[in-house]
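User: hey, got a sec? need Diadenosine tetraphosphate (Ap4A) hydrolase folded
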Amino acid sequence: MDELELEFELDSRLANDCIVLGDFPLSRLLLMNDANYPWFILVPRRAGATEIYHLSPQDQHQLIDESSELAEIMADSFSARKMNIANLGNMVPQLHLHHVARHEGDPAWPGPVWGKQPAVRYSEEQIAQIRKRVESMLVGEVSFVAGKK
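Assistant: Yep! Here you go:
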């Protein structure tokens, strides 16, 4: 574990809006607490990173690998018409990549998901179901956190 990972702390806004599911080799895997959409976020565990180019070349490649794997699994698992992957950072500067499985007829289709609908919080039962589903999809890829927010 390098110094940047040791100093890593999840931004409080992400911590408040998301459920921590586990860790890929580089990134923390979060579930956005909004049942309107299948919406996951990857946050590289590197202190101070606000842009992809702030990562080492090796970490940049690892992030793309993790993002691609997550997107493919989400597309299959949630029968996505389109995967939206975004790195904005205007509200939360900490480097993070949104992964949203989109469907024709979802509350924001075909526009962006931000600000279209009030968030609908997951129930504890729904979180447990999603956690189980994700664990079965990413077995061996992610070290999972047991039932913590």
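Quick note: The chain has one domain: 3-144. Let me know if you need anything else on Diadenosine tetraphosphate (Ap4A) hydrolase.
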